[in-house]
Each structure stands twice: as C-alpha cells, then as structure tokens.
Amino acid sequence: xxxxxxxxxxxxxxxxxxxxxxxxxxxxxxxxxxxxxxxxxxxxxxxxxxxxxxxxxxxxxxxxxxxxxxxxxxxxxxxxxxxxxxxxxxxxxxxxxxxxxxxxxxxxxxxxxxxxxxxxxxxxxxxxxxxxxxxxxxxxxxxxxxxxxxxxxxxxxxxxxxxxxxxxxxxxxxxxxxxxxxxxxxxxxxxxxxxxxxxxxxxxxxxxxxxxxxxxxxxxxxxxxxxx
Length: 228
What we know:
Transmembrane segments: 39-58, 70-87, 135-154, 174-194, 206-224
Keywords: Membrane, Transmembrane, Transmembrane helix
Pfam family, one: GDT1
Distance between the termini: 16 Å
Family: Belongs to the GDT1 family.
Structural class: mainly alpha
Membrane topology: Multi-pass membrane protein
C-alpha cells in the first residue's frame, strides 16, 4: 500500500503541475467555449486517460526488457532533465500568454476553415442536436473526436507522457495510473469549466518553476534511493 500511495502522490503532483498551462489545457478551455462542454470534457478526458494508461504500461514493461538498474538510472536522468527544462522555460520564457495565443490561433484557423460557410443559427442548431443525442452515440460526435485527437496527439511525446513512463518504471504502476487520471481529470475539468478566462489568468512561469522544482526533487529522491 505504501508503494501505491507513493506512486499515486508523485503522479498526481507531477500531472497537475505539468498539465496546468500546457497546450492541451488551453485547447480544452478554448474548445469548451465553442462546443458543448460535456462533449469536450468527454473527448479530452478519454484521450488523456488512454494516454496515461499506455504510458504506465510502457513504464511497467521497461524493467522486463532492460535491467531495473538501467531503468532506474534513466528515470533519474529524465527527472533531472525535465526539471532543468522546466526551470529554463520559467526563467527564459517569452511570456505567460504566448502558448495560449499560439493554441488559440491554431484552433481559430481550423474553426474558420470548418465553419466559415455556415450561418450562426445553423451552428447553434447543430450543437443542440448533438447535446440531445444518446450518451453512447456522443462518442461518434465530430466534437468528441476532435477533442480526443487534439489531446491525444498533443500529449504524444510530451514531457508529461515521458515523465509518466519514467515514474511507472520506478514506482507502482497502479498508483501512477490512479494519480495520473485524477490529475488529468482535475486539470481538464478546471479548463472546461473555467474556459479562457481561467486559462488567461494562469502564470505559466510560476507553473513551470513549480514543476521544475518538483522534478528536481523527484530526481534527487530517485538518485538517493537504492535499486530494488
């Protein structure tokens, strides 16, 4: 139980500090302003849960493919690397609103391409129809698929995904999955409910600084802990 609790706590803290102010966080906030929140939340959460489980499975399998000693050292290196990376972003970043503006510009371009010829009334009617669909059929909704794909591919190869892999290789994978899913749920729900107004108030520098320090702490703890 101690191992599960430790993996859960580390994963939860890492996920929250990695995802707040991340591109997928901003994407969820902006999508929720333009589409039914329920569909956006379902799509984003589904993608992030799938990604968390896949990452944990890769991390769990890693010690079976290479020695636990090497996976432990690689994980320690990743924690220090991500910590330095985050601290660099916090110190030398170009501004808090840069990533939000970048995500909004990308979604605006896609929005205009897909909806430029539609009237406002038809868009409202279309959204109302989607809200009235049976629950299971909503998983085939274009809005659900859009939210899912943006978050899934946005997380692929991201710092938080690689950190989850490393954490699952060094901690109890079940605890890592539970902590990761809870962290993703908290961040995504906050983004969907708070929308752009909440996203624009977040200081990316402070989040990056906190995340960087957390990764450094994880790295030190991993470096000092013996290989089991």
